[in-house]
Specification:
four-stranded antiparallel sheet, 1 helix
Length: 354
């Protein structure tokens, strides 16, 4: 791509979206200042293909999904009619009466077909299929064939996976965790609320811990770990104002901090210290991402057509925030850079400490 020809694309969208990055809100003195530098902005329609060994980064904006590189090249840009699932490795478009699902790699080449009805769920290289009944799921192999499945008597209301496990929450308030072979490693009902339902769930990378937002009317956040074949509650708290929809829960890479979205806020739980902090966040949190070095956390939230990016230092200290309007947006992090998608454009911000 000729960057000189795209000078206007670089400067105007970057200025609109990122000018507030330079307004820093520090709640704790830092030894080093963190600098945010806009680098480029590209249109997702400007497909250049995969002509280098750069790591592909996934994007999903409106009815378009695909992959791009850290240097600003759009590798794949695929339009879809109904919905699409995407991970770091795979794209899977699907329709409302999905009887089979084609899976594509980052170059847009079909890699396999899941020849069973259901809706795909993708997470990194992990593939799942959700049959239309809503109360079961299947783990799928790289060639599209089922590995194992689990069926429950009531609907799944929360679902998550990690490198070493899968967890599903259900409408009756039960949370179940599985290892990679499909064996149940934890199963319990947090209770404590007048209406039991799991609204958000997460599982740690090692598969040993799970966390969830549970219940309506005395809603709670719960974290538990495997302990001699049982689940041991290691943290819980009531949330006050409750959320009445599915919500996000996510462990950090070391599984010593877990984040969750409650009504108008972000909950942060330090599991080592058994302590929690709540930060106001307007709207619904749609993504939580981490920098490669683990020093920064990026929160993307949406309130109507207003998106807000909140940056936390050392997992808890709010040090920057900026907002922009749009129909769709996403964030990704790679190599100490933040990528932000906005309508039909993707921009890169380099992050440095001085």
């Amino acid at each position: 791509m000729n960057l000189n020809k795209k000078k206007k694309d670089r400067l105007i969208p970057a200025g609109i979206i990122f000018c507030a990055v330079y307004i820093i809100f520090s709640f704790k003195p830092m030894n080093q200042e963190i600098h945010f530098t806009p680098e480029w902005t590209v249109n997702i329609s400007q497909v250049q293909g995969a002509d280098s060994d750069e790591e592909p980064v996934p994007f999903k904006l409106g009815k378009t999904t695909g992959f791009f590189t850290g240097s600003g090249k759009i590798i794949t840009s695929l339009n879809y009619d109904f919905k699409a699932a995407i991970s770091d490795k795979i794209i899977a478009p699907y329709n409302s009466d999905n009887t089979a699902t084609d899976l594509f790699n980052y170059k847009g080449t079909k890699i396999c077909t899941i020849r069973e009805p259901g809706f795909p769920f993708l997470d990194s290289d992990r593939i799942y299929l959700m049959p239309s009944g809503g109360n079961s799921f299947k783990r799928i192999s790289a060639d599209g064939t089922p590995l194992w499945n689990y069926e429950y008597y009531c609907p799944i209301t929360a679902f998550a996976s990690s490198s070493n496990g899968t967890t599903a929450g259900y409408a009756d308030g039960t949370l179940i965790a599985f290892d990679n072979s499909g064996k149940i490693t934890q199963k319990f009902s947090p209770g404590g609320s007048n209406t039991e339902v799991i609204l958000g769930a997460a599982i740690s990378e090692d598969g040993n811990m799970v966390a969830c937002v549970s219940g309506l009317d005395q809603q709670r956040f719960i974290a538990a770990e495997k302990s001699e074949g049982h689940s041991r509650i290691i943290f819980h708290e009531y949330l006050g104002e409750q959320i009445n929809r599915q919500t996000i829960v996510k462990f950090n890479k070391n599984a010593d901090v877990v984040y969750y979205n409650f009504k108008n806020g972000l909950g942060i739980v330090n599991l080592k210290k058994s302590a929690s902090l709540k930060i106001p966040v307007k709207g619904m949190i749609t993504q939580i991402e981490f920098s490669d070095d683990g020093d920064l956390v990026y929160i993307l939230s949406r309130d109507g057509n207003t998106y807000t990016v909140t940056v936390l230092e050392k997992y808890v200290y709010k040090m920057a925030t900026f907002s922009f309007t749009g129909e769709s947006a996403f964030i990704q992090t790679r190599d100490n850079a933040l990528f932000i998608g906005h309508n039909n454009k993707i921009s890169k911000i380099s992050i440095s400490k001085k």
